[in-house]
Amino acid sequence: MNDHVDFYFDIISPYAFIAYKNIINIKNIKFNFKPILLGGLHNLVGITAPAFNKFKLKNMKNDCELISKKNKINFIWNSNFPINSLYIMRGYLFVEENKKNKYLETFFNAYWQDDIDLNIEDSIIQLLNNLSIDHKQFFKSIGEQEIKDELKNLTHEAFEREIFGAPTFVVNNKIFWGQDRLEYAIDELTSN
């Protein structure tokens, strides 16, 4: 039996952002953060992302705004959606353990609250500077094979677990897909 909830996420997912905002307010449950590259996972599974279907995209935008308003989460649809989140997700694996939470909060907020274009390297550098993370070391490290492999392996791990989207929660080998399944994942964890 698990003593934690695995949380598979990518900064690119607005639903992962909403889930994250709810997770950070839960104090008595341990979450194991598992960064993945959502585009890579979609490729493995053979899914076309909603971002590339104009009807799904419009619905997703409206849905995220509706959910955020209901949950009192400050949310702005990023005008540069979608972006390539590769550097940011590798970066999460690079940063020191004691900075991971702040890193994630900073980049989630920058993208889904502040409408910052994270495709622009200068935007990333500014955020790293705000976090006192050496941007030269950051870009050097995320290009190293070990970090590349770690993100690739986590994405393959998600695929092997039959995960197909983000956010996904896993407890006791049971998959709970979507920000609206967080409570079900917690129920699974605490009911034993």
Polypeptide structure, described:
The protein is of the alpha+beta class and 192 residues long. It has a single domain (5-190), classed as Glutaredoxin, CATH 3.40.30.10. 52% of the residues lie in helices and 9% in strands. It has nine helices and four strands; from the N terminus they run βαβαααααααββα.
Q: Give the helix level as a range of percent.
A: 40-55%
**CATH homology superfamily name:** Glutaredoxin
The first-level CATH class is given as: Alpha Beta
Estimate the strand proportion: 5-15%
> What is the correct CATH architecture?
3-Layer(aba) Sandwich
The number of domains is: 1
How large is the count of helical segments? Answer: 9
Mean pLDDT across all residues, rounded? 95
Query: If you compute it from the alpha carbons, what radius of gyration comes out, rounded to the nearest whole angstrom?
Result: 16 Å
Q: What distance separates the N and C termini?
A: 8 Å
**Structural class of the helices, strands and pairings?**
alpha+beta
DSSP strand tally: 4
Secondary-structure element sequence?
EHEHHHHHHHEEH
Strand order of the largest sheet: 2-1-3-4
Return the CATH topology: Glutaredoxin
